[in-house]
Design a protein that fits this description.
heterodimer; A: 245 residues; alpha/beta; Rossmann fold; seven-stranded parallel beta sheet; 9 helices; 48% helix; 16% strand; B: alpha+beta; Vanillyl-alcohol Oxidase, Chain A, domain 3; six-stranded antiparallel beta sheet; 13 helices; 26% strand
């Protein structure tokens, strides 16, 4: 039985890699995002690579009016229904410092928008008694740092939400995988100073599929970020507050 | 668009550039970039010299714009974004019985690069060049306008874009005329050519769809120009599994390609094929992209990199090729990688490389003696009415180009019209004075 995946933020680098991997194994993909011509192109790409279904769909984390039609489409999808959340935005911290109003948008894009959507979608998975939700957090959410703490806070909030949702869906036969990527070679990180151990998006997509198959709860990807973040989380706050990493 | 300051090189690694690079991941980002801050496109940087470099300037990395956009199974027209690689097209479309009509020696080349260099393949003598099988392309001009260019509606612009080294704008997407092919495997007949005369006679007589010759560029005297001719047809059947790919862990030391080692290797490689020849069945990739299995084989030439000299000379100038081989084998500088092929007249643009004749390609580790040898070979090429290949060149001097490329002026006029402010200049254009100086 094939699966249908609803992918939010589908034009992002990691989402595109995941959509292609799913297409090549014959799954269906509903590709949601804001750039409709790009989503249509990606849908064509997925169809040619073997997707059993590939459709673009409008989704804007800041426009809750578009959530319900998308949930309806998901409800009608054939096979096992899964969802992957790649939405998020990461303005430069300095831009946010100059214009605190940007906090709202960052939190909406990375946390409250996808959380509200998932809250509407969760009953569909509960009804079906199966299905997996993949939520993409970030290692930036594991500890607030001076250079990126608004984005980090939003991702931390989303990670906590996913933890609760996992607790809920498990009772109904569903599952939630929290993915915390380290530095990934995407348009978001392109040209930013201080990147190291940068992974290609295809590697993240493969790790996500493996985590779904094995019903993992929280993964760091590439794997060594678990250890890097363990160290970073262990640094005592009196020391950490004086560091700039 | 965020720009990344970086140092980068072409495949030969002998020339490098330092500059800013953007890497748009969606068409709208590319279109906005071209409207606001146009720069020339680069792909997988499989051209060897400086065709993919813009030192001190900016370039647009196209490799994330790599989607299949549509396929019409009635006509065989495949619409793809220009950053898609040819190997990926083979991987996805091959099992459905469709292949690009022309494939160069590496599957890592992008569609945009294949058009910008109007590449050719092992079937050039009967299929022509890559862009001859392009039905249309979407060109983003440095003024930000998008145009669908076909050989019919914009004849001059199409011709100036085919092999035009990116000077007419950025190719965003292309519609490729694929060919039906029973494409599970390739049947290859390999036979020895005892010397240069034997080799050209075999090439002239070959009626195979695909043919290419490996030439021992170290062999001298009676066996000068000996080598192996591979002739092939695609077909259906059970495919032997392709071996896993490898990486080169480090830059090789200089002695790895010293004369005695190369000479010994070549002799073994030559004798590997029995005297009476043999036929073998290979996976498609192994025949079309033989070196792609070693992901970064350019590191075998050490950190100073290497040059590939490639020329084509008219049929009646085979004697000049023989003289070139004498010089090359006499110099002791050649690497095992040397190719001799017969080309047909097919070409799509003013600056397309192929003319009917023979093409010779030899890799040489970058060092002063090699550069002197290549300069001499370039003179011999020009005097014989031949030309060098921009996709490979890193060393040629500008005064030789008008003689090699008689359509240069016609091309320049179209390029200047398409890019009047010179925003698409690259290092090769400056080095060879291909366009009006600014």
């Amino acid at each position: 039985m094939s699966e249908t995946w609803i992918i939010l933020g589908a034009t992002s680098s990691m989402a595109r890699a995941l959509a292609r991997a799913l297409a090549e194994r014959g799954d269906g993909v509903i590709l949601a995002g804001r750039d409709m011509p790009e989503l249509e192109a990606l849908a064509a790409d997925c169809r040619l690579r073997g997707a059993s279904l590939a459709e673009p769909a409008a989704f804007d984390a800041r426009d809750p009016a578009c959530f319900a039609p998308l949930v309806d489409r998901a409800r009608a999808a054939p096979g096992t229904l899964n969802a992957a959340m790649f939405v998020g935005s990461m303005p430069d911290q300095s831009d946010i410092d100059a214009d605190p109003a940007l906090v709202d948008g960052t939190v909406t894009d990375s946390f409250t928008g996808p959380a509200r959507f998932l809250h509407m979608l969760a009953p569909v998975l509960e009804d079906r008694g199966r299905g997996t939700i993949v939520g993409v957090g970030s290692v930036a959410g594991d500890r607030g740092r001076v250079g990126n703490y608004v984005y980090g806070a939003a991702k931390a909030g989303f990670a906590t939400y996913l933890s609760g949702l996992r607790n809920r869906l498990t009772r109904a036969g569903g599952h939630v995988v929290t993915v915390k990527p380290g530095f990934v070679d995407t348009s978001m990180t392109w040209g930013i100073e201080g990147m190291f151990l940068v992974a290609p998006p295809e590697k993240i997509a493969a790790a996500i599929l493996k985590a779904v198959r094995k019903r993992r709860n929280v993964i760091y990807t590439p794997f060594f970020w678990r250890w890097i973040m363990l160290i970073i989380r262990t640094i005592p706050e009196p020391v950490f507050k004086k560091m700039s990493i | 668009m965020r720009w990344k300051a970086t140092e980068y090189a072409g495949w030969g690694r002998a020339l490098t550039a330092t500059g800013e690079m953007a890497r748009p991941e969606r068409h709208s980002a590319l279109a906005a970039l071209m409207a606001e801050e146009p720069a020339p496109a680069i792909g997988m940087r499989r051209s060897y010299g400086d065709a993919c470099l813009n030192g001190g300037g900016r370039v647009v990395d196209m490799t994330r714009l790599d989607k299949f956009l549509g396929f019409d199974a009635e006509t065989g027209i495949l619409h793809v974004e220009a950053g898609l690689t040819l190997g990926e097209i083979v991987r996805v479309m091959g099992p459905r019985g469709w292949l690009p009509a022309v494939l160069p020696g590496t599957g890592f080349a992008t569609v945009g690069g294949a058009i910008g260099n109007d590449v050719h393949g092992k079937n050039h003598h009967n299929a022509g060049s890559f862009t001859q099988h392009v039905a249309a392309l979407t060109l983003l001009g440095p003024d930000g306008t998008a145009k669908r260019v076909t050989p019919e509606n914009e004849r001059d612009l199409f011709r100036a874009t085919a092999g035009g080294l990116g000077q007419t704008g950025i190719i965003a997407s292309a519609e490729l005329q694929l060919r039906r092919a029973k494409s599970d495997l390739v049947t290859v007949t390999e036979r020895r050519a005892a010397n240069f005369e034997d080799f050209t006679a075999l090439l002239d007589a070959s009626e195979a769809t695909f043919s290419v010759g490996w030439i021992d560029a170290t062999s001298r005297g009676a066996t000068l120009g000996r080598g192996l001719l591979e002739e092939a047809e695609t077909g259906a059947g059970l495919v032997p599994a392709r071996k896993p790919s490898m990486r080169v862990p480090m830059d090789a030391p200089g002695f790895a390609l010293s004369t005695p080692i190369v000479r010994g290797f070549n002799t073994v490689y030559y004798r590997r094929i029995p005297r009476r020849g043999r036929s073998v069945v290979k996976p498609l990739d192994d025949f079309f992209f033989p070196l792609d299995r070693i992901y970064d084989w350019n590191r075998l030439y050490g950190k100073r990199g290497f040059h590939q000299f490639q020329c084509v000379v008219p049929l009646d100038a085979a004697g000049v090729l023989r003289l070139m081989l004498e010089r090359i084998s006499g110099s002791g500088l050649a690497s095992p990688l040397a190719v001799l092929k017969r080309t047909g007249p097919g070409r799509a643009g003013h600056l397309s490389f192929p003319i009917e004749g023979y093409t010779l390609a030899v890799d040489l580790r970058a060092r002063p003696e090699a550069e002197a040898l290549i300069a001499r070979l370039e003179d011999m090429t020009a005097d014989a009415g031949g030309r060098i290949y921009f996709a490979k060149d890193a060393l040629c001097r500008p005064n030789r180009i008008p003689q090699m490329y008689p359509e240069l002026d016609a091309w320049r006029a179209v390029a200047e019209q398409a890019d009047p402010e010179g925003r698409m200049f690259t290092d090769i254009v400056r080095r060879l004075n291909l366009r009006e100086e600014r």
